[in-house]
Amino acid sequence: MRLWLTKLESRCDTVARFCALFGMLFLVALALITNVDVFMRWMFNSPIDGVTDVAPLMVAIVIASFFPFALAGRHHISITFIGNLLGPKGMAWLEAAVALVTLAFFVLLAWQFIVYTIDLDARGQTTWVVQLPVAPWWTVVSFFTVLCVAVQLIVLLTLLGRALR
Prior knowledge:
Elements: H1 2-44, H2 51-72, H3 81-123, H4 135-164
C-alpha cells in the first residue's frame, strides 16, 4: 500500500508541475500581449482590441494552474507551534486534519466554479469588446480546481499514512 501511494504521489507531482508549466506559459503570453498592446497604444495610438477582455480570463487560468503545484508540494503557510507542543505523533495527526479541511475547501471551491461555469455557458456570457465566450475559459479554471481535489486527496492519504505509522 505504501509503495502504491508513493508512486501515486510521484505521478501527482508530475501532473502538478505540468499544470504549473501551462500556467507559466499563459503568464508569459499575457505579458507579451500586454507589452505589445502598450507598444501599439504608445507608437500608433491603436491598442489591440480585446486585451482588456482576455487579460482577466488569462489571469484566472494562471492562478488556478498553480494551485495543484502548491498543494502537491505543500507550498503553503503552516504554523507549527501547536504541532510542536503535541509531539511528532500529534503533529502528524494535526497535519492530516488540516489536509482534510483543505480538501473540503477545494471540494466546495470546485463545486462553485463548476456551477458558475455552467451558469456562464447557459447565459451565453461573452466578453464586452470582442464578444468571446467566457465559459470555455472558466471551464479550464474549473478543471484545475477539480484537479486540486484529486491532488489534495492524495496529500491527505499520504499524511494519514504517516500519522498511522
